[in-house]
Amino acid sequence: MPPDLATALSEAAGRLGVVGRQVQWYAELASTNDLAAAFAERGAREGSVVIAGTQTAGRGRQGRRWCAPAGAGLYVSVVLRPHARALPLVTIAAGVALADGIREAGGLTVALKWPNDVYHGGGKLAGILAETGSGEGPQGEPHAVLGFGINLRRAAYPPDIAARATSLEDEAGREMHQGVVLAECLAAFAARYDDLQNDRTGALLDAWRAYARPLLGRPVEWETGGKIVRGVAEDIDASGALLVRTHSGTVRVIAGDVRWT
After folding, report:
1. Left if phi > 0, otherwise alpha if psi is -120 to 50, otherwise beta: which for 213?
2. What is the set of domains in the chain, with CATH numbers?
3. What is the pTM of this model?
């Protein structure tokens, strides 16, 4: 592991809770989520972390490719074993945690876009992908894998990605230490996940709403049953579903590809 990552994680150890019980770093992987899922299926402890310097087959929601240039970002996955009530809110908790961690590490207040994107200044800074699996842990629990990628510094992205991506260093206007960003984001997630596992969800949902305020109230659209549905994103409910006001009433959106227009 690069020394700056190891040092930052060591210094933050007292704030990492269940996260970071075992950390493995790789210079290159196809996908941190895939390897973390394989570890989980073999009984890896909750909180085990996989980090890569680059990914060759990283992915986001809907199977989209996640571009992960070497040296440009943090690519991380965490093995989780949430209880059934917590599972639907893992992505919400992760979004709040990344916002908390980025603010602590870099002084930036970001915006959250449902369900899994982190923005600043109109550009995408980070994305989150939570996936579930059937492999069981030591006590028979099913698992989830939480993956996130943070754009740390400017990189040569493909044109379609470059048009909508930004980085922490571009937004902060200064160098960002990857170890500090990693440690603060993992420590923030440990705290938010502990709240989630102990049914303290009120503060979590309120924090998500606060970070999402710049984007709530905007028009959105999505496809269902072969038709495009349009409305205005207004809030999330207690399960993390997006509440959209349409001409026929309020609709709960729990999955799918929501486009913000």
Report:
1. alpha
2. 3-212 (3.30.930.10), 219-260 (2.30.30.100)
3. 0.91
Q: Concatenate the DSSP letters of all residues of 81-125 into one string.
A: ---TTTGGGHHHHHHHHHHHHHHHHH----EEETTTEEEETTEEE
- Local structure of residue 232 (DSSP, 8 states): E
Give the integer Cα–Cα distance in Å for 151 and 230. 31
Average pLDDT per block of 10 residues along the chain, 261 residues long:
94 94 93 94 93 81 60 92 92 97 94 93 91 68 89 72 80 93 98 95 96 94 90 96 95 87 82
Distance of CA 62 to the CA centre of its chain: 15
CA–CA distance, 257 with 15 (Å, rounded to integer): 35
Residue-wise over 58-92: b if at least 16 C-beta within 10 A, else e? bbbbeeeebbbeeebbbbbbbbbbbeeebbbbbbb
